[in-house]
Amino acid sequence: MNMNISNKKNDGSINYEKSLQYWADIPPTVDGVLGGFGFISNIDIEGSELFLKCLFSLDNPPLRNTALDCGAGIGRITKLLLIPHFERVEIVEPNETFINSIKEFVGEHESKLGTLYKVGLQEFKPIRKYDVIWVQWVLGYLTDEDLIAYLIRCRDALEEDGVIVVKENVTSSGKIEKDHTDSSVTRTFKQYISIFKKCDLKRIKQCKQANFPNGATVTTGEDTCSMLTVARRGTPRKSLEWRTAAACDGDAALWIQGSDRPVKGAFSRNFHYT
Ligand SMILES: C[S@@+](CC[C@H](N)C(=O)[O-])C[C@H]1O[C@@H](n2cnc3c(N)ncnc32)[C@H](O)[C@@H]1O
Questions:
Q1: Given CB 3.0 to 4.6 Å as the disulfide criterion, which of 135, 186, 208, 220 pairs with 70?
Q2: Of residues 188 and 258, which shows the higher confidence score?
Q3: Nearest to 246 by CA among 51, 59, 62, 64
Q4: What stretch of H or E contains 45?
Q5: Which atom of ligand 1 is nearest to the CA of 30?
Q6: Quick check: CB of 16 below 6 Å from ligand 1?
Q7: Is the beta carbon of 62 within 6 A of some atom in ligand 1?
Q8: 32 within ligand 1 shell (Cβ under 6 A)
Q9: DSSP 3-state assignment of 166?
Q10: What is the C-alpha separation between 257 and 17, in angstroms, rounded?
């Protein structure tokens, strides 16, 4: 599938052709897709696993039929996180070498792979519904305008209790950081919140990934952390805005509906309240 290359206003450093070119030179390995930080993969997956388990213990949990891995690289998240929990996993990834490596990387579980879409997220138009749409370390390659349009398309492609999980680095400097090498940006937390609102997405649970070694930020910038957010369709009410969550068996920090403060929950070594 062709990538229609467009550069829309703002995010001046984002150029789809340039980021595609950057990734074309990267070897199809875990270390490659994690920018030389392959050693954080286990910690990352462990944290995501806990988060996913909490989602399954919501009152109205997503089903485990079909997940979508967006900006999937070689299928690291598909293989290590999604395939064990879902009947079928589909993939969106524009890099030809990466997408051609996925089946081999996934190995014995290849039969669980659904359609692999070789296309950028800015062009991707879902043709089916998903229970979980997992989006990790890729949104920095999209302009704000394309990101909003993409999230709206994902929102409309959710099954009834479906969720979008966004795991992205955010700057704590309060300023957007640009990386001219791979033509990406690292947004601030506030920018993501504002974007979710524009998409009519309600944030229902959030955790911060801890235990990443200093400097291990896969995209750009030194002063960043990785946040995990899950969102569903629906305009948030002001007082409850970002605090709706159900109790969970224990490993992640939760906001409880209607509370002003995070309610005591168990802390795992990989999470803490944001
Ligand atoms: C840091 S890697 C993360 C890969 C995977 N999410 C993971 O965590 O293992 C970024 C991935 O985003 C992909 N990518 C870059 N620009 C993209 C775009 N516009 N649309 C979709 N994917 C893109 C790259 O090809 C690469 O596979």
A1: 135
A2: 188
A3: 59
A4: helix 41-56
A5: 9
A6: yes
A7: no
A8: no
A9: strand
A10: 43
